[in-house]
Amino acid sequence: MNTSTFLKKEGSWQDADASSRCGNRRSDDEDRPASEERGRYSVQRDEDGSRRLANTLRNLHCEHDLCVPVGTGSFADIIRRGMKEKGYEPVIEEPSEDNGYCLSLVEADGERTFITVQGAECHFKKEWFDRIDMSRYENIYIAGYQVCGNSGKIIADWLQNVPDIDKKKIFFAPGPMITEIEPETMEKLMALSPVLHINEAEAGNYTGQEHVEDAVKDIFAKSQNTVFVTLGGDGTMFYDGDEIQKVASFKTEVVDTVGAGDSHIGAVIAGLSKGMEVKAAVRLANHVAAAVVGTSGPVMDYEEFQKISEEWENE
Predict the structure, then answer these.
(1) What whole-number distance in Å separates Cα of residue 214 and Cα of residue 59?
(2) Are the CB atoms for 50 and 101 separated by under 8 Å?
(3) Which residues are registered as beta bridge partners of 69?
(4) Which of 2, 154, 293, 295 is the most exposed place for a label (fewest CB within 10 A)?
(5) pLDDT digits (tens, 9 = 90+) for 262-277
């Protein structure tokens, strides 16, 4: 299930995304049908993207709040228990419906197919945001699945009316939904100059550019803020309007690709919030993503993360 995140003042975060992917989407840009037989599938219940991001923020000691719409029903109970175990209190509670869920079908080569059932997290309401004191937050994270359809219109309109929004930093990870978000919603979001985080395929699909260097410049022209593009094993590219730079990835044995992108943007956010230079934050994010894909499951617990991070410090 998918949510977004706000970062409090003094480096602390809150998340206000949707708890389930609002549409059945493949995570890549290939045209093969989901039913096609390609080796053996493993099936798992997918963790919420922003909860994975929040897990990375917590592991990196970046204080934050997780603003997840929590409904009423069996799936909402699972979310509520999971949040309580991690020390989160529900910021938004919706009594009228249950939350949805998402299954990830993961192939042996890491390719994923998502099967989604929507719930309260895909039906954003303006009054939810009326309960949040945004003066407490300096940064906001938004994921693409939450800004589809009417929910996207509500979120974009709300953001435009947040007091002192020009003094806050918005991080936007549209994911594969970047080509599905309504043009009006995307225009409003881009007008807020968000920091964008996408992968190479998404950049090409959105801009129509064959070369990622051209795509990243096109995106910057719209957002007027730093653009991060993950390149898989080739590392990460970023562009801040001055020059395109690349940071190499770290070699690892890929075990499970679920959660790599969420963990990467989480580490970028944590690094920048702690005052790191952009290149250093990307290097940290590449380390985190390599650690996540090298373990089974989309979330790395704190003890395991600390053990691996000690190895980075000794490099």
Answers:
(1) 35
(2) no
(3) 92
(4) 295
(5) 889 999 999 998 899 9
